Amino acid sequence: MLTEREVIATLEMLRNENLDVRTVTLGVSLFDCASHDADRFILNVRAKITRAAANLVDVCDEVGLKYGIPVVNKRISISPIAVAACGFSAEEMCRIAVALDDIAGHLRIDFIGGFSALVEKGFTKGDCALIEAIPEALAKTDRICSSVNVASTQAGINMDAVALMGRTIRRTAELTADRDGIGCAKLVVFANIPQDVPFMAGAYLGVGEPDLVINVGVSGPGVVKKAIDRARTNHPDMNLGSLSEVIKRTAFKVTRVGELIGRAVADKLAIPFGVADLSLAPTPNAGDSVGEIFQSLGLKSIGNPGSTAILAMLNDAVKKGGIFASSYVGGLSGAFIPVSEDLNIAEATRNGSLTLDKLEAMTSVCSVGLDMVAIPGDTSAETISGIIADEMAIGVINSKATAARLIPVPGKKAGDKASFGGLLGEATIMNIRDDGGSAGFIALGGRIPAPVQSFKN
Question: How far apart are CA 287 and CA 394, in angstroms?
Fold first, then answer.
């Protein structure tokens, strides 16, 4: 339970600091929906999701109103379709995606995640069919999100999958060219993907998860920034160690709020509570920016030298505060640095303060990776695959989740602007070195072996 003091502090966060519960995500296992017939599978899926999520939106709104804490997004994560529907063709996989989109629309769900495949060690028939279906599926739907895990610390990097995803991203951009390649904004390539993440586009329900589960994602970059600003105003001599403590204590409060909402929703739906994911996930709204935290900590702009050190401190402090606040912290939990979804980060890429090389370096210590990065529409599939491979290597070597959500914007070049709308925001297209220099490496294929787990230096 929250103490009276914490309640007062929380009300202040709500009034002035953009605190919200970013998502309540209902996980639904589809393994018991299996069938050899696609129509029967779709009927089974529709019945189960509708039964489980019929009251999800109303309950989230009711709980949010009761506590005065809005739940911004109501989402569903499902078992990876490449596994649950492993016997079907690419055409049938696309039909399943369209049906899932229709189900989400009827239930007033914002997104369904789980049009996914796990291919870090190789492909099954279902994996191949799903990946082949991704471009058309994302072009035909509005609420479906797709993720493909191509690497893990235990398995290494499946470079055949990396090469395939480069081509898949290009094709997805082409099929949504009239919307600045927005299909790619709903597609993410992962290393070490978590099984319980509630945030899109990577959300899916892992095979070790319950039949039904409620996971909650809390976001509070504005809260953290204001806490730092207050601390520095009241104590001008504060150093980074003391400021790290401020961030940790703030993360504690935010996590408590998120778990309170998540458990209330779970209780009303009679569904087990899973995890609270405390991720500083920004929005395009002013005052809700991760990038502004860097300025509060003394940098002129995110991307300046010192950015990686600040992000490492921020990520660590957020995790420490979250872990102390709840025994059930999961998902990604840390700081996101999505280019288009954060006004401050988008501005840093526009004015040249933040380059792709610096962004990649920062992903070694953040919670996700290259997130919502718009690149020129004519970037080759091999170059896209090379960028993905580098990001996967960071995750594999550091035993952490990393991801690449790259958006080639058809017909546009570096410096142009791409607009995706809503929470996805808009971004200046980043300059990419694309001289064909990665093609020979990508063509080699195979699997980069897993790293040595002992003798780490």
Answer: 30
Task: Please list the rounded mean pLDDT of every run of 10 residues in the chain (457 residues).
Answer: 58 60 91 95 97 95 86 93 95 97 96 96 96 97 96 95 97 94 94 89 90 88 87 92 92 84 93 87 71 91 93 91 83 78 84 89 87 92 96 93 94 89 80 90 94 73
pLDDT, position 287: 65
Tally of CB atoms within 10 A around 314 = 27
CB-based burial of residue 390 (10 Å sphere; 0-12 exposed, 13-18 middle, 19+ buried)?
middle
Number of other residues whose CB lies within 10 A of the CB of residue 236: 7
Nearest alpha carbon to residue 345 among 415, 400, 295: 295
Question: Which part of the chain has CATH 3.20.70.20?
Answer: 27-191, 221-444
What is the torsion angle, in degrees rounded to the nearest 10, for the CA atoms of residue 368, residue 20, residue 251 and residue 10? 180
φ, ψ for residue 150 (rounded to 5)? -110, 0
Give the right CATH number for 27-191 from 3.40.50.150, 2.60.120.260, 3.20.70.20, 3.30.300.20. Answer: 3.20.70.20
pLDDT at res. 374? 92
What is the CATH class of 221-444?
alpha beta
Cis ω for the linkage preceding 85 (within 30 of 0): no
- Helices and strands counted in the chain (H then E): 15, 14
Token representation of residue 373:
């990065």
Q: Which long-range contacts (CB under 8 A, 24 or more apart) does 69-72 make?
A: 69/10, 69/14, 69/19, 69/20, 69/21, 69/257, 69/261, 70/20, 70/21, 71/20, 71/21, 71/23, 71/24, 71/261, 71/265, 72/20, 72/21, 72/22, 72/23
Q: What is the DSSP string of 268-322?
A: HHT--EEEEEEEE---SSTT--SHHHHHHTT-SSTTSTTHHHHHHHHHHHHHHHH
Residues whose CB is less than 8 angstroms from the CB of residue 401 and which lie 6 or more positions away in sequence, other chains included: 190, 191, 192, 193, 194, 332, 367, 368, 369, 395
Which residue has tokens 């586009």? Answer: 201
Measured in residues, the chain has a length of 457
Query: Model's pTM, two decimal places?
Result: 0.91
Phi and psi, residue 221, nearest 5°: -60, -35
> Measuring CA to CA, how many Å separate 293 from each of 219, 298, 426?
14, 9, 20
Which amino acid would we find at residue 342?
Answer: D
Question: What does DSSP say about strands 402-409 and 187-191: parallel, antiparallel, or unpaired?
Answer: antiparallel
Write down the pLDDT at residue 105. 95
For residue 155, the 8-state DSSP code is: T
Is 184 within 8 Å of 148 (Cβ atoms)? no
Return the pLDDT at 288: 72
Alpha-carbon span 266 to 60, nearest angstrom: 10
